[in-house]
Design goal:
GO cellular component, one term: cytosol
Bound molecules: zinc ion
Function: Plays a role in synthesis, processing and/or stability of 23S rRNA.
Shape: elongated
Number of helices: 5
Family: Belongs to the DUF177 domain family.
Keywords: Ribosome biogenesis
GO biological process, one term: ribosome biogenesis
Helix content: 25-40%
Order of helices and strands: EHEHEEEEEHHH
Structural class: alpha+beta
Length: about 160
């Protein structure tokens, strides 16, 4: 999927598709399972001052591995990213000038849309994914470890 990002914004084009996670090699490496689909939407628009913008939304359920119990769990992904498309690097304001901290894309007649989607999804994933509270099996494992050991029980008998 290749787009001309300047044209896409200028003509206010729209792309919408459901894409299997199998299409994203780098993403596949960090997932517990390559099952699942991402609902992807890209909108082009011309904003105030003829500023060219792209808005990318990605939604879906991904299988991540819990770093506490090492079991897979469903992670709900729902992100929206906005980019300003500029002609070249000199059009990107310095960090001090860009108070709103926009994200920029350089004009590219052959922009790989899937690469952009994959970058944004990877940025949105937690560094140390974990089950939410009680869903995590690690707690019951820890509880099992805390049970008195047979050795401890013997010690108690002896001391009586
Ligand atoms: Zn867990």
């Amino acid at each position: 999927m290749i787009i001309d990002n300047i044209e896409f914004a200028r003509k206010s084009l729209e792309f919408h598709d459901t894409i299997s996670v199998l299409q994203f090699n780098r993403l596949e490496d960090v997932l517990a399972s390559n099952k699942g689909e991402l609902d992807c939407r890209l909108l082009g628009k011309v904003a105030i001052g003829n500023r060219l913008e792209l808005e990318l939304s990605v939604r879906g359920v991904l299988q991540l591995t819990c770093q506490r119990c090492l079991e897979p769990f469903d992670f709900n992904l729902d992100i929206t990213s906005r980019f300003i498309v500029v002609n070249d690097e000199s059009d990107i304001p310095s960090e001090e000038d860009d108070l709103e901290e926009h994200d920029y894309l350089i004009a590219d007649p052959k922009m790989q849309l899937f690469e952009l989607i994959e970058d944004e999804v990877l940025l949105a994933l937690p560094l140390a994914p974990k089950h939410a509270g009680e869903d995590c099996g690690a707690d019951s494992m820890i509880a099992a470890l805390k049970k008195p050991s047979p050795f401890q029980a013997l010690q108690n008998l002896k001391s009586k």
